[in-house]
UniProtKB/TrEMBL annotation, chain B:
Entry's transmembrane regions: 6-24, 44-62, 68-89
Record's protein name: DUF3325 domain-containing protein
UniProt keyword terms in alphabetical order: Membrane, Transmembrane, Transmembrane helix
Organism placement in taxonomy: Bacteria, Pseudomonadati, Pseudomonadota, Alphaproteobacteria, Acetobacterales
Native source species: Swaminathania salitolerans
Length: 474, 102
């Protein structure tokens, strides 16, 4: 069991640290997208008007006639703006519109927080290989958790809170690994299980297809219709069926318009929808998921995506996800500690240390580099969203090269320390970066999504600085 | 706001329960060089406090309540462990090795 836990844990852990870090950030994908569109800071939430919706409906009709598979997302408390989006293979991009008059709001194009969603479920290498690797890693996590439980079975209850930072370094890391593993066991098992089941149809195609919570992914585009019937009466009728303020998506397909329930409207993520004729706006059908197996799938997706939850619960998920990432990082470091004395000079060990640094410290630096690139690239740069992604992967690659340089050299521990210094520098300066690159009235008078991102980055920066000081003095 | 308050109280309840559990473990007391406390009260706290946290969480919607209860358990465990470690470090400063009878 020890061997199984060690090797499955290490190989799976390299992927799972990426999945957990990106997944934790993806919990706030909408908020991060808003942070990365600072032009929206000046807009205050306003109710959706019928005129705005009908006007945007006309824009979508034109886009679909031109072959773009566009759809509409309605304003929500998390994202109080009307958006017309299309899928570019990795993220949903598009234009924001004012919910009061339907005029476009000039925002910089960005993938925003959706990069982390893509990285979480497919390592940005979807839809096949990336997804397959993360699915296998999720199963690996279940095996590692099971074998870890068997190894520590006798001491689970008495050692539940045991942490000895003053013991030997290996003992302290082991305590931290076990402590986080036991305390976050319910979260880890739930996320690994629901994640594996959501992607189950790919691993077991005989059980049907899953939609991954993505609208319009495989739907044909190229609607020949030049205009649609006004959307606002359809929305009002759909709200009579599903309840007020429950509609989140308006999808278009084969001469019909689907008013689809928002993922945030219910714990069970079922995408129930009312179908209307695009020609005259009459109700054609109401689709509700009644099949128990599909409803069970909706429950599992609801548990995993947590789009229905209030903000404090999403923060609980975020902190649990970060703890999961730290747990697996501690496991990777323990693996290196165990083998450093006997195999420290071998090529494979140095490669293992490079990869470990690549996922545990270089990835968070790249995430911050992505935020920095978003604010430093000028807003009308051609293919801006693409260049932001390139910046993210470039910073990650540079971090990996630096990790390799240090790991294959005589002072690998300096590599860790330098990464922490770099991370702290990037994170602690996100707040002034936001202050200098965003126009907003009353910066100090309210607490909004922008400051939440700034202060969260600041807190992680302080933590990195603390770790750097500990590493420097030890 | 109510959700936040419920979660904060639930965290405190779980923290007390887990702290009491830790103080009932001879191995943890030995390892952290903490003095042995009165066991009766600790047993009662360990038994009652998780139910108090559950009762608080059940003021929320049921699925939110269950997830919050488990989430609070995890975070409160980190908090309780950190508190015990700090107490242990203080104890070690005040009573260097060999001077404390456990």
């Amino acid at each position: 069991m020890g061997w199984l836990h060690e090797w499955i844990g290490f190989l799976g852990g390299l992927v799972l640290v990426v999945c957990f870090t990106a997944g934790s950030l993806a919990l706030f994908d909408i908020e991060l997208t808003r942070w990365m569109q600072p032009e929206l800071a000046r807009y205050h939430p306003a109710p959706l008007s019928d005129a705005a919706l009908d006007k945007v409906g006309g824009i979508v009709a034109q886009m679909r006639q031109n072959g773009r598979n566009a759809f509409i997302t309605l304003p929500t408390p998390r994202d109080p703006i009307l958006r017309v989006l299309h899928f570019n293979g990795h993220a949903f991009l598009g234009t924001a519109y004012s919910p009061t008059d339907g005029f476009p709001v000039l925002t910089r194009p960005t993938d925003g927080g959706q990069l982390f969603f893509d990285l979480h479920h497919s390592l940005y290498r979807g839809p096949f290989w990336g997804n397959m690797v993360t699915e296998i890693a999720a199963i690996g996590l279940l095996i590692a958790v099971g074998s870890g439980l068997i190894i520590h079975f006798r001491s689970i209850i008495p050692d539940l809170l045991l942490f000895r930072p003053f013991a030997s370094r290996t003992r302290a890391w082991m305590d931290a690994h076990i402590l986080a593993g036991l305390l976050f066991l319910p979260f880890m098992v739930m996320m690994a299980y629901t994640g594996a089941v959501i992607h189950g149809p790919r691993l077991f195609p005989m059980f049907g297809g899953g939609h991954h919570g993505r609208p319009g992914l495989h739907r044909p585009s190229g609607d020949s219709r030049a205009t649609y019937a006004p959307l606002s009466p359809m929305l009002h009728e759909a709200e009579k069926i599903f309840g007020p303020a429950t509609i989140g998506l308006i999808l278009f397909e084969n001469g019909t318009v689907s008013m689809t329930r928002a993922d945030s409207s219910s714990f069970v993520l079922t995408r129930d929808h009312a179908v209307f004729s695009a020609q005259d706006g009459t109700l054609v059908d109401v689709v509700r998921q009644k099949d128990p197996s599909r409803r069970l799938g909706g429950i599992l997706r609801g548990l995993h995506f947590i789009r229905w939850a209030p903000l404090p619960l999403r923060w609980l998920y975020f902190l649990s996800g970060i703890a999961g990432s730290a747990l697996m990082s501690a496991g990777l470091i323990l693996f290196l500690m165990k083998h450093r004395d006997r195999r420290g000079s071998r090529f494979l060990f140095r490669l293992a240390e490079t990869l470990t640094m690549g996922v545990t410290t270089a990835l968070p630096i790249a995430c911050l580099g992505y935020l920095w690139a978003n604010r430093l690239f000028w807003s009308d740069l051609p293919e801006r969203a693409h260049w932001e992604i390139e910046a993210f992967f470039l910073v990650w690659a540079v971090g990996l090269v630096h990790a390799a340089w240090r790991s294959f050299g005589p002072t690998p521990l300096r590599g860790w320390n330098e990464h922490f210094v770099l991370f702290a520098s990037f994170a602690l300066t996100v707040l002034p970066l936001d202050f200098l690159t965003r126009t907003s009235n009353g910066y100090l008078s309210s607490f909004d999504v922008y400051k939440a991102v700034d202060f969260t980055a600041f807190a992680f920066g302080l933590l990195a600085l603390f770790i750097h000081r500990r590493l420097a003095t030890s | 706001m109510i959700t936040l308050l419920i979660l904060a109280l639930s965290l405190i309840c779980w923290g007390i329960a887990l702290g009491a559990h830790a103080l009932l473990q001879p191995k943890i007391l030995r390892a952290l060089t903490l003095p042995a406390p009165r066991r009766g009260t600790l047993r009662l706290l360990r038994l009652v406090m998780p139910f108090c946290a559950l009762a608080l969480c059940l003021q929320l919607e049921i699925c939110c309540a269950v997830l919050s209860w488990f989430g609070c358990f995890s975070l409160a465990g980190i908090g309780a462990s950190a508190t015990l470690t700090l107490a242990s470090l203080r104890q070690r400063r005040e009573h260097p090795a060999g001077t404390l009878a456990v």
